[in-house]
Structures are given as structure tokens and as C-alpha cells.
Amino acid sequence: MSAGRKLPEWADITLVPLVSVALAFVLSAGLIWAIGESPWAAIKFMVEGAFGSSYGWGYTLYYATNFIFTGLAVAVAFQARLFNIGGEGQALVAGLGVALVCLYIPWPHWSLALLGASLGAALFGALWALIPGYLQAKRGSHIVITTIMFNFIAASLLGYVLVNILRPAGMMDPASPRFPAETVLPRMHEILSPLGITVSTVPPLNISLLIALAMCVAVWFLLWRTRLGFEIRAFGESEPAAQYAGISPVRITVIVMLISGGLAGLMAVNSVMGEQQRLVLNAVEGAGFIGIAVALMGRNHPFGVVLAALLFGFLYQGGAELALWTSIPRDLIIVIQALVILFTGALDNMVRMPLTRLFAWRGAR
Amino acid sequence: MTVFQPYISAASALALSASLAHADPALMFDLGGKFDKSFNEAAFNGAERWREATGGTYRDIEISSEAQRVQFARRLAEAGSNPVVVMGFANAPTLEEVAPEFPDTTFVLIDAVVDLPNVRSVVFAEEQGSYLVGMLAAMASETGTVSFVGGMEIPLITAFACGFAQGAKAVNPDINVIVNYTGSTPSAWNDPVRGGEIARAQFSQGSDIVFAAAGGTGLGVLQAAEDAGLKSIGVDSNQNHLHPGSVLTSMLKLVDQAVFDAFTDGPDMETGVVTLDLAAGGVGYALDEHNADLITEQMQEAVESAKAAIIAGEIVVHDYRTDSTCPVF
Q: Looking at chain B, which residue has its C-alpha nearest residue A286?
């Protein structure tokens, strides 16, 4: 009976998201058709633009790197049933950490600069998440509210620092100066060329992708192979039970938020240090929020997060190509992204229930 | 800021462009998008005006992330678009990176300066236009308090506020100028509800004329002024028609003209810095049938004489951007 009620695990992880995404794309195709464009051509533009060349891949993976970090941040917090929607603010403040490390410490080599900037980013991001975490643990201030508010505080803080402190005199743009040449991270074409692989030199994809993937493995190891991970998950499943087992809610809440904020912060290494090479006001541009969708779709599992981040990277880069070469407005691309989020997140059961019934029916035969 | 370089050399442009392939111009909007009822939309209107006038075609593109600035500017140049007009001061580093890669393509940057041989940088003397509407506000105010709603506290917008306050104080040295900014996130440029709230808060402090320089947020400011029976001042394009009788005037910043000129001049335009100030007609105040009853002859005379004095250099409006200070704050 219970076997009939539940989906097999493989179907839960692969089939449900795939069917959801397919449904979102069918609906999007209908929309594109309704505004008088060819859905087939549109999908071709998107797929070719995102995966058809090393140029497209480079951009897709660059965006995906951002989303892996922010998706992991949300996923880790969610394992303790803490809904960290402050990834945006944590990454913004982490960007400040990266900028300070890159601008004020004379680095001899990019590898050391990368280490320093990663520590700076993780530290600033973690500290920004610490305050809401502490307030949740000690004062019961709801983490959703405080992390949202901290996003705005982060934006204001960054605006103030950029306009009044970091901005070079006479420059109009509220942005930091360019980082010194020693802090330029190697891009993918430089990493791959010793291996005899030549790729487009244009995309901003850089070594941070490898850090992101390493973080996925680290998070997986932490959650499923360490005592702390067990405590986090136990706390998430049932706080009273965890407390009864001697797990301190305050400790877990604070630690989880530190890890989550640190992961969100690492995103700044990719965007601020790897791409822009200077800190701008809008350095995070919504990746913190996309991270929520990525975690939701990736079932809060590090490897699911990678796949979901890749999908959103595809939507970003494919959407950009679509806007570039067709007259489909960019708002429609946001609609497509929204449909994917809607189907994979909010309408999850719409796909899951018929699939469960289908499997139950097959099992019964 | 008052250097004006004439830049239309139609004859030579025509002669040279014959040798080039028929390159279509391109326009890249800043974050905020094509239909922001402000800066980007003004550029779009200029491009559309060029299309209607010449029957030509152009390509336009909206960016939605920072990484796309360089990506799209490069893609437009690669696709053979020429000239490529790029909107917004945030794109100065974009062109510093992309323009040297395409020496045969002419780029136009609106709102900032990039010193490269194939870039025309168009900047506006916003402080001068703001000065004039500040004078009008001070003359129309009955309470002796006027106010300003900016989008974000960045040097460009503070230059608007500073010019506005200088103009107002030139008319009435005792006038009280309230300055507020909408926010610190990109949504600050498109939050009419918040704009209306700020305007109402300023009205409660005695302001009866509000000047909005906040993109789409300004629409909420203008609406709040009409709802309160008070007056407002629009920005960038002529917004007098939005609430006739309530919009006192609009501070014009002719972004559309800059785009139109760039498209008209074509790939062989003169590059360098183009400063669109009062003398060049790049900024100003709007007078039309919608606000004819609000601006008395006396007010108009005062503003016109100040305008002449600024052009002649007798009045120097301080530009906040030069030293990050404002003499009247």
C-alpha cells in the first residue's frame, strides 16, 4: 500500500522535474506562438545560443556558476528548514569583501588572490547571514522577514560605500576602481588550452566554476557524511526531537546560517572578481532569488542544484540570444523562467500525483 | 562642461559612407529596459523618429544583466551594426573594453565620457536645465518650500538636485528645498508607489512643488501631486501632458535628439565629447499648451533671462559631479 502511494526515488528525482520543465516549455511555446513568432525557431535559437558553441556554453556555465552558489546556500539552510531568502544581500556584501581584498591587499599571484577573495567573500556573506540567524535563534525573529530586510540594508550599505568611499574621484558610475591585473582570474580558455582544447575567449566563465562544483561535493559530504550534517537534517525534520537528542537549536541555526551565507557570498568571487573585475551596484542582479528556485527544483540536494543551475543558466543565455536575434521581447523570457519556477515549485503536486497514480497502477498490474 | 563641439558634417559623412557597406545602426538600452517612460524610452523614441524620417532600419537590444553589457555590445559590433549607440554611464567600462576591439565601428555613449578614437561621448548639462525648473518652482511656490524626489543617491541624480536647489535659491534665498531619494536597489527607478509616498511626505512638510528625477518612479510623484491639488515637474522628456494643469513644467534632457543625431550622422560621425547644454539646446524646460496657464509671462521672462545669462557664462551653475559638493545644500 505504502509502496503504491510513493514514487520510486529515481522518478522523484528525475521524472518529476523533467515533466514539469517539459510542461513549462510547452506552455511557453504556446505563448510564443500566440504573439506570432515561431516556437520551433525560438527554441532552436535558445538551445543553439546556449549549447551550440563554446561561446554559448561559456556564458551558460558562467550564469550556472552563480546559481550553483546561491542554490546551495538556500538548499543547505533548507535542510534545517530555515528559509534563507537573503542570498541576494549576502552576495552583495560579499562582493564588498571581494573588492576590499582585491583592492587593498597587494597580491603577487591570482591563485593567492583567489584564496583571499574567497575567504573574504565567504566571511562577509556569513557575517551578513549571522545577524538574521542569531535573531532567529535567540529572539525568534522570523528568518524570512529578517533576511529579506537585510537584502535592502545590504543594497543601501553598498550604495553608500560605492558612492562615498570606493568610487574614484570624478567617475560618474557608482562603482569601485578596476581590480589590479594580478587578481584577474584565469578564464576557461586559459585553463583548457594546455589540455589542447580551444574554446571561445569571450565568455566570462572562469575558475570559480570548479570552486562551485567542489562546494557541491563539500556540501553533500557535510550533510550526509558528518555528524554536523546529521544534526542539521535532524533539526530540520523535527526540532523537538532534535532538542530531545541533545542538539542545540541555537547552535544549529547559527551554524547553518553561517554556512548558507558563506556559500551565497562565494558567488561574488565569480561575478565580481571573475567577470566585472570591479564592484558595481548591481553585482548580484537577482541571482540570490534565482537560487531559491534552483534549490526548490534541485530538491535541496547539491547534485540537483547543479542540474537546476544549468537549466537556469540555459534560460539566461538562451534567453539573451533569443532577445538578440528575434523580436521576442525579453519580458517573455522572464515569463518562461517564471513558468519553469511555477511548474517545478508551486505546481509540483500537479505532476507528482498523476505520476504516482501511474506508477501505482503499473505496480498493481 | 560648457564646451560645445558642433558635430554634424553631413557632406563628408555622405561621401565616406558610400564606401562602406550599408550598415544599420544599433541601440543598446541600459538596465531598466526600453519602456521605462524615461531615459531609455527617450532613446527609443529618438531611434523611432529616425526610422520614420529616413525609412531606415535599426537593431535594438535590452540587457537584463551586468554580464550582458559587454556581451551584447560585442555581438552588435560583430553583427556589423554601425554606429552602435550605448545608453547609460554604467556602460563606460563596457566601451573601454569593446570599442578597441572594433576600430572600424563607431560607438556612441550617452551620459558618460570614454576617451577613445571611435567613441562619441554625449553628456548633458543636467544642472543647467534643473536650475531653470528650480527657478520656476520657486516662483510658483506659495508655501516657500519645494522638494525633489531622486531615484538613487548617485552623482548624476544629485547633480539634478543641486541644480534645482541653486535655481530655487536664486529666486528666493530663503526657500526650503527638501531632497529625498527613492531607494538603493534598481527598483528605485521603477517604483511609482514609493514615489507617491515620498511626494506625500514632502507635501506634509509644506512642499507645494515637487520635481521628480527618478525614471518610472516619477510617474507616481506626478500623480500624487495632482491628487493633492499641488504641482509637479517632470523630467527627461516633456511630461506636461501627463497631468495637464498639475505638471508645472518638465526638465528636458533631449536624449532622443542625441540618438537621432547619432543615427543620422552614421558611422563616419565626428567622435569625441559632445556636451549638450543649454547653449546646444540639449537641456531646457518645457512650455506647451498643457502648462501655458501655469507659467506667467513674468516667470517666463525671468527664466529666459537666466537662460541667456547661463549661455553667456554670466551665471555659472555648479555641477555637483565636478567636486561632489553642492554650494546650496
A: B65
What is the ipTM, given to two decimal places?
Answer: 0.79
User: What pLDDT, in 10s, does the model give residues B22-57?
Assistant: 589 999 999 878 887 778 989 999 999 999 999 999
Q: Distances from the Cα of A272 to the Cαs of A175, A179, A185, A264, B273, in angstroms?
A: 11, 10, 11, 13, 30
- Give me the phi and psi of A170, to 5 degrees please: 85, -10
Q: What number does CATH give the domain B127-251+296-323?
A: 3.40.50.2300
B residues 10..29 contacting A (CB < 8 A): none
Question: Do A210 and A354 lie in a common domain?
Answer: no
User: Looking at the complex, does the CB of residue B115 fall below 8 Å from at least one CB of chain A?
Assistant: no
Say whether both A310 and A353 belong to one domain.
Answer: no
Q: Whats the size of chain A, residue-wise?
A: 365
Contact A204 B67 (CB under 8 A): yes
Which parts of chain A register pLDDT below 50? 1-4
- Give me the helix-helix angle, B126-140 and B155-171, nearest 10°: 40
How far is A328 from A290, CA to CA, in rounded Å? 22
Same domain, A95 and A6: no
Tell me the torsion sign for CA atoms A182, A186, A191, A193. negative
Query: Can you tell me the distance from the alpha carbon of B262 to that of B259, in angstroms, rounded to the nearest whole number?
Result: 5
